[in-house]
Amino acid sequence: MARIVMKFGGTSMAGIDRIRSVAARVKREVAAGNQVAVVVSAMAGETDRLVGFCREASALYDPKEYDVVVSAGEQITSGLLAIALQAAGVPARSWLGWQLAIATSDAHASARIENIDMAALEASLAAGEVAVIPGFQGVDAEGRVTTLGRGGSDTSAVAMAAAMKADRCDIYTDVDGVYTTDPRIVPRARKLKKVTYEEMLELASVGAKVLQTRSVGLAMKEGVRVQVLSSFTGEDAPMADTLPGTMIVGEEEIDDMESQLITGIAHDKNEAKITLIAVPDKPGAVAAIFAPLAAANINVDMIIQNIAHAARSTDVTFTVPAADLARSIEVLNQARGEIGFAELVHDTRVAKISVVGVGMRSHAGVASTMFSTLGERGINIQAISTSEIKVSVLIEEDYTELAVRVLHTAYGLDAVDAA
Ligand code: ADP
Ligand code: ASP
Ligand code: MG
Hints:
The chain is 34% helix and 25% strand. By secondary structure, the chain is of the alpha/beta class. Strand 19 (383-387) and strand 20 form a beta hairpin.
């Protein structure tokens, strides 16, 4: 007997027929003798719809009430899956975030899981029931419902797997694994059998939304074995324990590390570029820009600064999440006296393209291949940032797909059997 967590995303839960097919898949695992907890997302599009209602009700909505509204989608699908399982002859019970309880911080809309009380769940599993848990939600110390940030059901599943000491956390989605890049953009993308936690963490954080970044960080910390696999397969599909999808693993489980220079490419269109023109070139100037942004909880990503010696001033360019652009402009304008910039310009028509691979640690030339490949296609690079296993560039948004495709070919990632 194995203990497994099965997580089903929005497209896998989109409608009663899909939920029935999820129930059949869960039933197969139960019939194989496994103890199962299922974590579910809201139906595809539902969370967007609920977020839209909040925005319509008030641009300045209270995050505590936002969480009450947007967590509702998962409440519905968890109940529906429990009903579908029962109808299929599988004993099942749903457990809302406050019922378990899944204790989180009080950072509404982006809360962190702090503890999961397993008592009720263990009793239910021991009684032979499948536990169905709505992803994305928890409860804070005041007893108010919280949510974990968009895509947060992945994190709920990994946290549940850690708390249950599960043998595996299977993340079922609408693709059959993690690919060298988003297979919806590059049909020649190759499915990876294994990806290291570290690479997956970088890929997720630079836009590969197949797993929420936090879920990968948590899996790495807790040593949870995570598999990404498809829920869109028939009843004769191989069982999940034959590992048909992609396993997220420690580096020691990858044999041919040396031959993997680049593991994957990701893109992110949700960044905005801000340039402050003519900032005085003096100590403390940069701190004057970024301190108020940090105080407003705005994450700054890429930063470039050019010193124009003659004018004793400098232009500072950086990126922030597009959703935080308006707030960033407000914060910077309020601090204008202190910063002393002449003008603020911004641009949302940008995209960040990133190449990721642990092989970069031991090989030179990754960045230069990226720059020359983009240059040959006439794609201008507006900003650059690097980490030990990642190079990112900021380009004009219209070139996103082209850039991902040409880089995919340049790093030899195209599937060999692709036309
Ligand atoms: P779910 O609703 O199941 O959580 P998501 O839409 O959040 O699913 O994530 C799955 C999607 O992630 C895929 O449909 C695919 O378009 C996208 N994706 C982005 N990058 C990758 C990648 N490298 N490999 C696989 N899928 C990717
Ligand atoms: N339903 C939530 C969202 O759309 C959480 C999730 O699906 O992971 O962000
Ligand atoms: Mg998702």
